[in-house]
Amino acid sequence: MKGVLRRTYIRIIYIWILYVSRGNRGRRCKLYKEMKKKGIVLDVVAYNTVLHVIGISEGVDVSITLYKEMIELGCKPNIVTYNIIVKFLCQSGRFRLAYVILDQMPEKGCFPNVITYHGFFGCLEKPKEMLKLFDRMIESGVRPRMDTYVMLLRRFGRWGFFVQCL
């Protein structure tokens, strides 16, 4: 039991360092490689943290590589994993790949939630595409939250859809 607690404690420390080392991009990747070399096995929560932190500093391509490595090592992604990847893809303008992942999620036993769709809504630039995705969200049984409506209203307002109402 002490060995398990020690490994968990070490894992938490490394993940905390990943968060804290914001200014030093190379340090994050180096630290992740060091964790692997020391045999620290990451669970899905730890991988999600690493995916998020490294994705912010290194970009979506490094996150996708890490995501593939995670799967190869037998760690099953969860909804948070997919939400991180979808958001990074959308932010980098790679909507086709984000839609591919959105389509594959149910096949892998992980159904999109409202956060998944928010990743798209925050980045889409075409009103028709956004409405089509909103319809898809409703049809799939995902209920919008108040912040979903606020996000959509702001986007459509910026596009000038409400000028005539004033």
UniProtKB/TrEMBL annotation:
Record has Transmembrane as a keyword: no
Pfam families, per database record: PPR, PPR_2
PPR repeat locations: 43-77, 78-112
The entry's keywords: Repeat
Similarity-based family: Belongs to the PPR family. P subfamily.
Name of the protein described by the UniProt record: Pentatricopeptide repeat-containing protein
Organism: Coptis chinensis
Lineage, opening ranks: Eukaryota, Viridiplantae, Streptophyta, Embryophyta, Tracheophyta
